[in-house]
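Please predict the structure of the following assembly.
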Amino acid sequence: MTVRTRIAPSPTGDPHVGTAYMALFNAVYARSQGGQFILRIEDTDAARSTAESEQMILDSLRWLNIEWDEGPDCGGPHGPYRQSARKHIYQEHALKLIEDQHAFYCFCSPERLDQMREAQRAAGENPRYDGLCMHLSESELRSRLNAGEPHVVRMKVPEHGECQFHDELRGEIEIPWSQVDMQVLLKNDGFPTYHLAVVVDDHLMEISHILRGEEWINSTPKHVLLYEYFGWQAPVFCHLPLLRNPDKSKLSKRKHPTSINYYRQIGILPEALINYLGMMGWSMPDEQEIFSPAQMAERFELKGIHLGGPVFDLEKLSWLNGQYLRGMDPEEFMDRIVEWGLNRDNLRRLVPLIQQRTEKFSDLVGQVDYLVGARPVLSAEDFADTGLEHEVQVQIVDHLSRELDALRDWQRDELFEICRSLAEWHQLKIRDYLKPLFVALSGRAVSLPLFDSMVFLGPDLTRMRLREALAVLGVSKKQAKRLEKQHREFRASLGSPQ
RNA sequence: GUCCCCUUCGUCUAGAGGCCUAGGACUCCAGGUUUUCAUCCUGGCAACAGGGGUUCGACUCCCCUAGGGGACGCCA
């Protein structure tokens, strides 16, 4: 059997290190077995998927030197490799399931589903569709369908017993069917959900091994069931551990930089990052720590994966990066510096900010230091000149930080609008409001324009600096609770609670 | 709340019943090299979650408890 693996990122945001992590293990495993590795774009969430995000993901994976044999950019015998271009395939398959009585039309409104789930939760049950639409009469079904009533397609799930499946690393896993929801397969907008699309595509693309995050274990019964309904051979399932924040929770942008762009921007080398990811949950048989994906593939074994969720440690990554950097000859070192940051693309973003403020080139470094390099380490005194009380400073940094965690569209105007409404909420003039933020981002009271700086730094770096500033200012547990409440009040005042 | 997964130094990990006085790496500390700093070198601190079994023997196998994590969407 030819081993075929895949990575199936969803283009809904910044390229995530978790994606690179899964891509690495899938690519390495395929290579170690002489198989193929496929890249597929899962853009079935029409509301959140963007072309820019897809582009960034491809760029990031290429930057990391991960190569795929088939994909949306290079094509292949099982295309198209973008799910939005495969809509009709899923619809046909959903129809087949309905014909075979494995799925049914559901007309329930989101409101009814919310109420139902709330009631179930209150009763201590696992929220699950109650099957209301499963028993519609043929005539009612026809008339509602003909009337064009909004509907979805749901899969049927056995009432009793449990689903048993094999995980390559964890052995037999049993999950009661009572825990498995009658999953929506086809959404109201005609797009499939992940569960339908992933099964159909993995089968059609002849994927033999699914290496994915352990967050999927609980939905594997749905997939196993679908393979059964379609009469297909299920692939080998292998759930890998999840990358963790320092507090052991699943890696999230709220607590840790997750964007590959971030690492690229702070000057982590692609070979160091990918090497580092390779030692998350796996190690070379001889415990050698410096290795490439190619070397990894030579010695790789699935069974060698350690299941405890590895904490992403920035310090060890930095050390590893230093090993690579110091091992270069000076010529390469120079090339890599230019490649990293001192290139025209980067300067093009910088020049509009600095040209009018510059008299001598020797002024330059002092202006852009915090954008190109690390911000000076902050101390509490740095915030003293803002003329604001400590409590207010903390509020400003905290609330903005929370807003930015949720922000999708990282644009200058968006950022300004958020700060404007926050300043208003704090009843401060915008210039006073921004003072602690200048310090937080640049380490100085005066720097290049704030919103341009935020755009240049990007989401992860900006969030990171705000988090660090908050730590320097010092927030007690009690205060943290109060801040959270205040921020909720701010959200409520906007009339858009979240 | 329900279900599922996991558990070796602070962190990444080695360890497939005796090789374990539990090894390596990062961090930290001490010393050395270096006009400073960094690099580099040497040394040190530091862990088998707890309790029961199984066994001549358990970090390794089984059970329970505890702790951590994940899932529970017309998101993936």
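Residues 32 and 297 of chain A are 5 Å apart (CA to CA). Chain A has a mean pLDDT of 94.
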